[in-house]
Design a protein that fits this description.
By secondary structure, the chain is mainly alpha-helical. It has 4 helices and no strands.
Length: 173
């Protein structure tokens, strides 16, 4: 029964992932349309700023999500440390925790810098775009970020349930 529930939950997650991927494709199309509009109305250096911001948005958000996920796994492993845990393993986990914490703080700084750049890009676009186009741009940035987060969350859940299912199937004679 548990295996059946896990498979069912995995199936639901795979379907959700397909929906999110479809939304991501739609968002990418809107992004291409927006890019063409920005290219047409902005000066070349302003367009380049816009493109750098959009490219960095995905990289920084993905980096933050990845580091947060890895940090959470190390924290979970640290919670399972007990008197039987090898001292070398415990030290390794503590060092990884410190390193990932520092890296996440650096990534947060990158995100703050990216937020400042977004305000600059938004100011540039406000000079050229209609209110509706500017609203579309802001919605695009928000949706792109949300979809990245949702995709990462679904991937983590799928990975977790696949591991659970695999371990359960191995444990049954």
């Amino acid at each position: 029964e548990l295996i059946s529930r896990l498979r069912s939950r995995l199936q639901t997650l795979w379907e959700e992932r397909e929906l999110v991927l479809s939304e991501a494709r739609d968002c990418a199309e809107r992004g291409e349309e927006l890019e063409a509009t920005v290219r047409d109305v902005c000066k070349p250096n302003e367009f380049e700023r816009y493109m750098m911001f959009i490219g960095d948005l995905e990289k920084v958000v993905s980096l933050l999500l990845c580091l947060s996920s890895r940090l959470a796994r190390v924290q979970n492993a640290l919670r399972r440390v007990d008197g039987n845990t090898d001292a070398e393993e415990k030290q390794s986990l503590n060092e990884r925790h410190k390193l990932l914490s520092r890296q996440r703080e650096d990534a947060k700084d990158l995100k703050e810098n990216l937020d400042r750049r977004e305000r600059v890009v938004s100011g540039i676009l406000a000079k050229y775009l209609t209110d509706q186009q500017l609203q579309d741009y802001r919605r695009f940035v928000q949706v792109k970020t949300s979809l990245l987060i949702e995709q990462k969350d679904l991937e983590e859940q799928i990975k977790f349930f696949e591991e659970q299912l695999e371990n359960l199937e191995k444990s049954i004679p």
